[in-house]
Design goal:
By secondary structure, the chain is of the alpha+beta class. 18% of the residues lie in helices and 38% in strands. The protein binds D-MYO-inositol-1,4,5-triphosphate (I3P).
């Protein structure tokens, strides 16, 4: 699965609150290729150019991660929360309710 998403970092690994200045929403072209890792690229061109150099810096390990609808986050629509096994937490905004469900299902099915 691939597509543009907005991402907000809430907690870095080990449940540490992401510091102010690093908590803003940013757009990424996100690809879930290798089933255990989600890669975040600046845009689609960045994905085509960089997929060979993907590394830990733009990757989120989603093995044993949990994606759930962020019903408590009311500032934006179609948002899910991603909690990873290393206890980091992100919010992702998708384009519509179908995309929202599809990202959640894809991540949780892994
Ligand atoms: C953050 C940015 C986010 C905001 C977050 C701010 O500032 O304004 O949009 O989250 O609030 O800290 P910065 O760009 O300096 O990191 P919301 O859009 O959800 O309000 P937060 O710290 O309450 O999460």
């Amino acid at each position: 699965k691939k597509g543009y998403v907005m991402r907000k970092c809430c907690y870095d690994s080990n449940n540490k609150k992401t510091p102010f200045g690093k908590r803003s929403w940013k757009m990424f072209y996100c690809t879930l290729r290798d089933p255990l890792v989600m890669y975040l690229h600046k845009d689609e061109r960045g994905f085509h150019k960089n997929q060979l150099s993907d590394n830990v810096h733009n990757a989120i390990r989603i093995h044993h991660a949990l994606a759930t609808k962020a019903n408590d986050y009311t500032k934006k629509q179609h948002v899910f929360r991603l909690q990873t096994s290393d206890q980091s937490e992100y919010l992702f905004q998708t384009s519509d309710s179908k995309e929202l469900q599809s990202w959640i299902d894809t991540i949780n099915f892994v």
